[in-house]
Amino acid sequence: MKIEDLKGLVQDVPDFPQVGIVFKDISPLLASAKARKTITSLLATKYKDKEIDVVVGMESRGFLFGTLVADALDASFVMVRKPGKLPGAVVQEQYDLEYGQDTLEIQQHMIPKDARVLIHDDVLATGGTALATSQLIEKCKGTVVGYSFLIELDFLAGRKRLKHSPVHSLIHY
């Protein structure tokens, strides 16, 4: 499959989760074994020679392809979640939203010191979640070597906030 074929499977859902938002539904990509394999290959190939130790995926759609990319790179997979969803000692990072703040957490023992980390999520929008995740990795003494996204919403310019490591996105809007 080509990128345009993958893009054709993404469905726009107007006014979800609120009026004025056009949600990019990746369910058809997940439903297609061929699409999943293509996406995993394209995302992982970019980082094959980067000696990735850990792939970190953000709640919750970042888990879907993040685990597959981790498998393809023979790396561990670690979740970043909203507060109160991970057991044991966690590291937190608060970040700004358009109207307020939110917090992300990671289990502090899951990122080995000096681990080479790839951050993956389904969509790069404003970059706030990815930036907060990179700050979590730094608090855990890991090194972010790149960002991986299935979809990038170019008009929101989130890439500009992620200057310190390369950003790779498959589908652009």
UniProtKB/TrEMBL annotation:
HAMAP family: Aden_phosphoribosyltr. Gene3D superfamilies: 3.40.50.2020. This is Adenine phosphoribosyltransferase. Homodimer. Its EC number is 2.4.2.7. It catalyses: AMP + diphosphate = 5-phospho-alpha-D-ribose 1-diphosphate + adenine. Pathway: Purine metabolism; AMP biosynthesis via salvage pathway; AMP from adenine: step 1/1. InterPro entries: Ade_phspho_trans, PRTase-like, PRTase_dom, UPRTase/APRTase. Catalyzes a salvage reaction resulting in the formation of AMP, that is energically less costly than de novo synthesis. Keywords: Cytoplasm, Glycosyltransferase, Purine salvage, Transferase. NCBIfam families: apt (TIGR01090), PRK02304.1-3 (NF002634), PRK02304.1-5 (NF002636). GO terms for molecular function: adenine binding; adenine phosphoribosyltransferase activity; AMP binding. It comes from the Bacteria. Residues 32-151 form the Phosphoribosyltransferase domain. GO terms for biological process: adenine salvage; AMP salvage; purine ribonucleoside salvage. Belongs to the purine/pyrimidine phosphoribosyltransferase family. It is found in: Cytoplasm. It is an enzyme of class 2 (transferase). It holds the Pfam family Pribosyltran. GO terms for cellular component: cytoplasm.
